[in-house]
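Appendix B, example 12.
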Amino acid sequence: MKTAPPWVDRSIYPFQSKWIKLGETELHYVDEGRGDVILFVHGTPEWSFAYRRVIQLLRAKYRCVALDLLGFGLSDKPPGEDYTCNGHAVRLRQFVEQLGIRQPTFVANDFGGGIALHYAVHHPDNVRAIVLSNTWCWSLRNDPHYARPIKIARSLFGRFLYLQMNFPVTVLMPSAYGDRRLLTRDTHRHYKRALPDAASRLSAYRFARELMDASPWWEDIRSRFSVLDQTPVLLLWGLGDKFIPPYELGKWQTAFRNATTRTFETAGHFIHEEKPEAMAQEIEKFLSPISSMR
């Protein structure tokens, strides 16, 4: 029977680890609590560990399901797999179908936003609500803010940084916090140990390449947003995010004009790590009237 590696500290990640087989690979996930489903979809270089405290705060009222995308966390990391955004989106659909998840609320950040929305726009009748934080779902190729990271990601130097130096964990993650002191040594260790060597970092590196390559994919999803006009949307935004600027929030507010918005002045890219209590409170407040309408 598969078990989590000993470096996973159950005092801070106190969940039963589960695995599901999709084709020739296995995805790790946690499934905590009972009630309406909240399905958490992480970005890079994260895994389900990122949402641990939010899950602990919500599992008394909701069934909280959080998967590790292929190539991340405790999921398999085979070479040669499809680590594109679309590849992850296909596996997310398979994950939902195999677990028989009905009417989930998606909570997603970073690259997870587009992956979750791909499912939502193609299966709007099986989505209760959507919660997005510090993410995007449109082409970034013509935005000067992203030009330098895209250029680095597509270079041989960028490949070296990602595969040999674990750049997204060791450098980008600390820089993305509004307050770096909140990234404790124990927390950081769980991200480092999840991507221990070059062979395990292929998915994180592929995401870096997707900043350019996934542009048509994101634009296709955005063109289908109208099917979600009746879907409740909550936008949570860390205004101290150096990587996804606040003007991206305005694009979401234009796309989903009836969305509820909550901003966090001192939080950066990882609200779930920096403000888990406030995030859980906002999600519960948002979902409470939706659940009562059933």
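The chain has one domain: 18-292. The first strand starts at residue 18 and ends at 22.
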